[in-house]
Please model this.
Amino acid sequence: MYSKAFAPEYQGALTALSVNSSLPDVLAAANEQLATARSDGSPLEAARAGLAAAEAYRRLGRTEEAERAWKDSYRTARSAEDVGAMAWALWSGGTLARQCGRLALARRLLGLAAELGERGGDVVARGYSLAGMAETGRIQGDYEAVRRLHEQLLAEARRRGEARHTVWALEGIAQIHRNTGDLDTAHGLFAEAAGIAADAEDHRGHAWALRGLADVVSVRDGDAERALALLREAERTCRTMNLRSALAYNHKMQGNVRYRAERFEDARASYAQALDEFRTMSEPRGEALARLGLAKCRARLGRDLAETVAELDELAVTMERIGLRHALEMVRRAQAEFTPAVAGTVRGVAP
Model:
């Protein structure tokens, strides 16, 4: 039903690269091809190579270099008058903006990318850009507005038999169900995504699906050991492919699982590791979530309550500034949990 996963962001002379190619290898090949294309005077090939470089830099957490690369790719694509290549460059820029917590900019760039993809007849660029808009809305907690778009994109991906995009859409819908309390549906969707990703050899998608499954297993079933086993399996993939952002979110989830199991010392170590990784990548959403988990662990381990309350107040401002409604709700729950009247008597829900 589904073809093997492929990476449409690797174009032109780089189409031989696999969706599972290690990011350092992708970056080396992209920069080599970029130099060749410039030497040959081929702006379209240069734009395509620049896109691959931008995505490698982004996934490696090298955000400043990613910013320069996608903008250069866009300018080069525009000079080549290739609308599709312009759409892909804007998609990369919008995805980077979301990663860096600039959500309004992300929506604007991804919207422009979708328009250009449609105008240029690039169905995949349009689909990926709309998917990026849906994911941005989901991260903000705007579930009703983006649920239908997720489902529309899932139907389109299934119709084309495109495994990677199907996996992404299933994971997005599953996350909405998980965050709104329908854990059985979330578990089924994450499991389906994991199965499709495994069959299609989409290692990145499989790692993210396992992370989602681990979250649900931890919350619904209270099975910390099973959840941690799933996360360790996903972690191996993240390390093999050098998926730094995915690895940081994996470590943050390990903190969540350990916190729910009341293993507060272990949870603190996991959150601290994730926090360092997010800060290295300049990823403010992940950093804020890791800080929230760390603050709750420290409170459980005897930190002065006034310090905890002050940090939670600061985190509430941060979540509101970034525009993370669901995360802000988690901070509000933590504030209620650790007010003097109830501190030490209520077990909260990990972020």
Observations:
- The first helix runs from residue 23 to 40.
